[in-house]
Amino acid sequence: MTFFTKTALAVLLSTGMAHAHDYTVGDITIAHPMAFETAKTANVGGGYMTLTNAGEAPDRLMEVRVAQIPRVELHLSETDANGVARMTKQDGISLPAGETVALEPGGLHVMFMGLNGDPFEVGEKIEATLVFETAGEIAVTFNVEARTAQTHGGADHSGHKMAD
Fold it and tell me: For the residues of the chain, what is the DSSP string, one character each?
């Protein structure tokens, strides 16, 4: 291997590892928890990740706790046949045995509510605790990332006001 090849490989590996942040608790793997930057006036923001249950029994994400955010809920965004989008609070997110569930814009997601003039900014880190019914609790970090042309679709909560 040449010096250039070794250097390129080292940069590639370190860059990939810098962006990949996964966690495991029990049979559950939490991949890449993140949130998008929000507008300065946003009162809410969305959190996303991929949850994989490698176990033989189902589990359930029951709650997400964040000390510095007044209210955090699990939500589902859906669009009906008439094109009307609705968002509903979920009591938990089911994780069937041996399956992966994506929390993503336009579907299941974490709703951070009550930002009150403290927007999510690129590079910010949101320390959270995920609470699973069987696997238990685990501390994770949601990295705040920039929006791109590919990420503007789906449910964009950055400009919504929170109802009291």
Answer: --HHHHHHHHHHHHHHHHH--EEEETTEEEEEEEEE---TT-SEEEEEEEEEE-SSS-EEEEEEE-TTSSEEEEEEEEE-TTS-EEEEEES-EEE-TT-EEEE-TTSEEEEEE--TT----TT-EEEEEEEETTTEEEEEEEEEE---GGGSSS---TTPPPP-
Is residue 156 situated within a structural domain? no
What pTM was computed for the model? 0.79
Mean pLDDT, rounded, of the chain: 85
Question: Which two structure tokens, joined as six digits, stand for 159?
Answer: 């400009």
Residue with tokens 């080292």: 10
Write the CATH number for 145.
Answer: 2.60.40.1890
Number of separate domains in the chain: 1
Antiparallel, parallel or unpaired: β 71-79 and 59-65 = unpaired
65 dihedral zone (left: phi>0; alpha: psi -120 to 50; beta) = beta
pLDDT, tens digit, 9 for 90 and up, residues 28-67: 999 999 999 999 999 999 999 999 999 999 999 999 999 9
